[in-house]
Amino acid sequence: MSVARLFPSVTSAVVLCALLAGCGTTPDSSAEMDPYAGGASFPWTYTAPAGSLGPQRLTAALNTLSFETLLGASNGWGPIEPDRSNGEQARGDGRTLTLAGVPYARGFGTHAGSEMRFSLQGYNGARCTRLTSDIGVDDEVGHRGSVVFQVFLDGVLAYDSGTMTGASATRRIDLDLRGQGELRLVVGDAGDGIDYDHADWANPQVRCENDSAADLRYAFEFPEPLNARYGQQVTATLRVSDEPGHTSGPVSFQLSVFHWSSPGAPPAQLAEPNRVYAATTLPAEFPVRLNLTAPYPDGFTPPTGPVELTLAARLEDRGFFRRAYLNWNVLP
After folding, report:
1. N or C: which end of the chain has fewer CB within 10 A?
2. Assigned CATH topology for domain 40-210
3. Burial (CB count within 10 angstroms: exposed 0-12, middle 13-18, buried 19+), residue 96
């Protein structure tokens, strides 16, 4: 007895598969689709809104750029991806940044043509001195892609990598930043189109140092008193300015409750004790949330009337502080 007669359905399936050149496939589906066909691109741009630069704090430390605020940016294939490869057109669709088999936790996944701009203005008198970064075409595109990395300082070309491809070895940028005010990181397409031009700035860091000659004259004050009862959460406005006739530059600091004038009054507590307050231009005002501790539970009646709170503003990476005095009129 033939196998075909025992399993007629199997024989029919084999014949059908042969006629269709493979079960569930067509000749076209096995070929890789070209996402760049027809000159496709997915441009993306970003401009920082006015007044949004507070989170950027280049202090006297080694500052990783993927934590800093972009002044402006553009990209040729969807959004620039912080701490991920460029991926495709959607935000967050990249992978771990990888150059020549080495993964990086921090950096930017970009795509030609791209550009990122950063301020190099340090906080609390810090002066930025050096930029370092590894660069290359991300492993996610194999040996494809061809790009040129460029660094501009105050609009002047300071570094040009020449053409790099997916087969190129990783290169390292190490540039002097002293006296510079703006950093611009650019990726070009090497003159042959943007196909597979996935370019990584891996672990980009800016080193800044305290300027021992910096004459910092910040003034901290609470211009309006509090009028509140114990047990409330209130918001006081802290104003930071330069002393008259002086310019200190951007400021960043943390607050703590240092002292209160009445020994019978429970202390106020900061609702956000770990918050960093920062401003690029002065004068600047900050909302400071305080918990006014409720009276002691043992029946002790704390005083009402005026209480003066002293808050300490500790300058980030400077190790010294300024005082600010807040008048609290304790309501009965």
Report:
1. N
2. Jelly Rolls (2.60.120)
3. middle
- State which CATH number among 3.10.100.10, 1.10.10.10, 3.10.310.40, 2.60.40.2410 fits the domain covering 218-330: 2.60.40.2410
Q: Measured between alpha carbons, how far is residue 38 from residues 32, 83, 121, 190 in Å?
A: 15, 30, 43, 19
- Decide: 148 and 168 in contact? Cβ < 8 Å: no
* Beta bridge pairs of residue 117: 72, 184
> Can you tell me which residue has the tokens 């409330």?
232
For residue range 97-130, what is the model confidence (pLDDT) as tens digits?
999 999 999 999 999 999 999 999 899 989 999 9
Secondary structure of the chain: what % helix, strand, coil (to 5)?
10, 45, 45
Can you tell me the distance from the alpha carbon of 186 to that of 149, in angstroms, rounded to the nearest whole number? 6
In sequence order, what are the residues at sequence separation of 6 or more whose Cβ sits closer than 8 angstroms to the Cβ of residue 167? Answer: 143
Q: Could you read off the pLDDT of 30-87 as tens digits, one per residue? A: 346 778 877 788 899 988 776 544 445 788 889 999 998 889 999 999 999 999 999 8
